[in-house]
Design goal:
By secondary structure, the chain is of the alpha+beta class. The protein is built from two helices and three strands; from the N terminus they run ααβββ. Among the domains are: 34 residues, no CATH class; 43 residues, no CATH class. 22% of the residues lie in helices and 15% in strands. It is elongated, with a radius of gyration of 24 Å.
Length: 122
């Protein structure tokens, strides 16, 4: 969490000219910023979010974080790009994982649990 106001502006608004209470003012600003974010149930600092939002047929989608300053990508009716089938008989499931540069498959449960069966793409 980032403070929603800095000490300079708080002191200017409160007409405080001395530096003797700067520590207290910093603490109060941080506490108040946390309370505001908690009450509003959102973060006000600029951040990057990756969200998959499914519309409900209306012309609008309510986003959990706002205001939006940049949108990197919007997709309509995405198509299947990768299908995974786990053929190991004692495995619970196969899980696809990804990060910025890799997509892979991890086996959950069974004799080969946790093994990376393939690096599908880099």
């Amino acid at each position: 969490m980032t403070d929603l106001i800095n000490r300079y502006y708080a002191k200017e608004y409160l007409h405080i000219l001395t530096d003797e209470d700067d520590g207290l003012i910093n603490s109060l600003i941080t506490a108040a910023s946390g309370i505001v974010e908690s009450i509003c149930d959102r973060t006000f600092t600029s951040a990057t979010y990756k969200k998959w939002l499914d519309g409900n047929g209306s012309d609008y989608i309510l986003v959990p974080q706002y205001p939006i300053t940049t949108i990197d990508r919007v997709c309509l009716s995405p198509e299947v790009a990768l299908e995974v089938q786990c053929t190991q008989s004692d495995a619970v499931r196969a899980v696809v994982y990804y990060d910025e540069t890799n997509i892979g498959v991890k086996i959950v449960g069974g004799t080969e649990a946790g093994t990376n069966t393939a690096a599908v793409a880099t």
